[in-house]
Each structure stands twice: as C-alpha cells, then as structure tokens.
Amino acid sequence: MRKRIVIVGAGFGGIAVARQLGRWLEPHEAEIVLVDRFGYHTLRPKLPQALGGRIACAVRVPVAPLLAGLPVRVATYEVTGIDAAARRVEWEGGGIDADVLVLAMGAETRPPQRLLAAGQEALSVWSFDQACGIRRRLQFLLAARGRGRPVDLSVAVVGGGFIGVEVAAEIQNRLHRALGQEAQGLVRLVEAQPRLLPRLSPWAARAAARHLQRLGVEVTTEAAVEQADGTGLRLADGRVVTAGTVIWTIGSLQAPAVLAEAGLTDETGRVPVTAKLAVPGFDGLFALGDCAYVPQLGPEAAEPSAHRAETQARVVARNVVARLRGRAGVSWRPGRNIYLLGLGPNWGLLEAGRLLRMQGRLPAALKEAVMLRHLWGVGGWALLRRGVGPVVVDSVMPARWERDPLPDGAL
C-alpha cells in the first residue's frame, strides 16, 4: 500500500531528506510532500555577508526547482498545528495526514527580552528578512550621512560567538568601504565571556580578536549586558557602550512555537530525539536539524550547523526507507566538529581539534568551496551557474555593489 511521507521545513535538512527519498523510493511506494511556509531554501551561512553588503541579498532559492524531476510535491503553507500522535500537519484552511512525518523546521536564537528596555525591539540576524532588514538600515544611514544629515553609524554586536564575529567583521568591512579610516571603532563587539569564541580553543579566540582589531572592530570581553535601550548598552560593571544600532547574536536556540504547542519540546526549547532521530513515544515521527537534539550525545552534537543537518538527513532518509521496507534502522553518529568561519573578505578561520588549525585566505576559500558544493548538490549546474556570481564570486572579490543598489530577490 502506498504511504505518504510529509516533511516540514525546507532548510538544509528538509531539502536533503526530500531529495534523497525522491531518489531512493519508487513512486508506487510513497507519496512525498514537502511543506514550507515560504517555499524558499535560505543559504543561511551567507547571511552575514549579505548583511554587510558584500554579496547580493539573493541568498534564498525557490524550493520547487530544487526538486524538479523528483517525485516530491511542494506545498507552501504556514503550519499552524501538529498532531504528533495522529501525524497530522495543519495550516489555515486545511492540513495533511502522514504515515511518516519528518520535522525539519529549524530554530531561531531568541534574544533575552529581559535585557531590553521597554519598547525596544531586538535586531538579530537569524533569518533572511532580519539580515537584509539590517542591511537596508545601514544603507539608509550611509545615504543620509552622504546628504549631510547627522546620523549615528555606530554599531554594537552582542555576542562573540560564531555568528557574532562574522557579523562584526562584515559590518566593519561595509563601513570601511564607505567611510575609509573614519570607520575605525564604529563597530564594537561585546562578549560576556573572558574571550571570543568560547566554544573554540584560546588559539582561535586570539586569532579572531587580532583580525577583528586589524579591521577596526573594538572588541570588549568580560562585558555582560545589563540592559539595552535606544542609546546603546549598559553593562553589568557600569560601563556604557553607545550605539545607534544594536545587533543581537546571543540568546536561547528555540524550535518554532508550533512544536512546543504540540508538546514535543522539552525545557531546552528543542525536540529530544533518539540516536535514530526518532521522537520517543510517537511512531513514525522523526525530527532533525536545529529544531531537535540527541540528549545523550552532549552539547557539542547539538550545535546548530548546516553540515550537521545534512548528515542527519541521510540517516532520517535511510530510516524512513527502512521503515517502509521492513528493515532495521541506523543510528546517527556525529563526526568530529569542524569549525569554518569567514571574517570579512579573504580571511577565515578553520579549527578541527588540536591537529588542524588554520587562519587566513585558505580557510576563507574553503568556506566558499563548501557553499559551491552545496549549490551543486541541491540544484546542479543550473543553480551553480546562477549562484556563483551573487553568492560566491562577489564574496571573494572587491565589492561591486557601491555603484548599484543591492537586490533582495532570489537566485
């Protein structure tokens, strides 16, 4: 009997599951449906570069062409409810039942509301709309300054983790292109811990701090934020960081509220799953990517990562096929964490344990190569040809965007 497989979410994990199941299953075996509220796949690792105006903001790809030629149906709806026991997904005016339900809905880092003064809205860079909105804000301020208007171009980036160091580098680079040496010190990176990149080694922290300071970023560590308002930040030790724009890269990683409402998340705000990436207590329900984690594997295996989502997707796809064909499933075994960061044009940082550490141009090139591989993997030559310019080439060449407005759009 033909089964229905429903995948919710078109991120790195959801797209990979849909493509693999579309290749591995015969049409008579299963109907495959991918549900996503936007109908776009966002290249999230490129958002800091888009924010800094170094590449076009067209870092999202329509989902349907990515699945062309595969027996996968795309349904563009915003999911409003999930019945985990019945494996039903609901949206306004309808819904769909599944024999196997795969949740790949991602997660967002939600800034701590307790630190925001009344009426203040937190600016973060976790989504396409957020990152490109900040970019447009910076463009507006630079244009107003060019017309002689008094504007505050200072920026405070809260959080010296992976996203924070990339965002600070990209914004400083953007301001330097526009203002030259006047941009020195306009961007300040604020980290509560004694050093940057607390999940990496002291070597990586020192290398990142040195490079950011060469770019002109002021790095402030051991600086816990007590409150943010319209003038900047007040730190717990009494210091004040003035800033016209405050960008948050810290906060708790939370799965979409609809998963909490379905009773699937725990106190961490994410969905706990088994090593086979199945949700305990719910037959035929799987979860992967940022919205889920395997508790017994520890915090390092739960870090948000596009690469990790893709490796989990292969396990979920194999287990879904095994379920349909009456075979045993497999467990996900995370490999060594490989950290690859890009801090502005032609400079990156690579760390994989103690044996492989690198900084400079080569890690930056490797990061772009990883994106090229992803573009090829999800869309083949057609997507690679469309994306190599606005998403890859522009990120390693001098910016060409100073003369022309940056498009939003999509690849």
TrEMBL record:
Record-linked SUPFAM superfamilies: FAD/NAD(P)-binding domain (SSF51905)
Domain of life: Bacteria
Domain FAD/NAD(P)-binding: start-end pairs: 4-302
Pfam family, one: Pyr_redox_2
Flavoprotein among keywords: yes
UniProt key word Flavoprotein: yes
InterPro entries: FAD/NAD-bd_sf, FAD/NAD-binding_dom, NADH-Q_oxidoreductase
Keyword list, A-Z: FAD, Flavoprotein, Oxidoreductase
Stated family: Belongs to the NADH dehydrogenase family.
PANTHER family: 64 KDA MITOCHONDRIAL NADH DEHYDROGENASE (EUROFUNG), APOPTOSIS-INDUCING FACTOR 1
Protein name per the record: FAD-dependent oxidoreductase
Organism the protein comes from: Geochorda subterranea
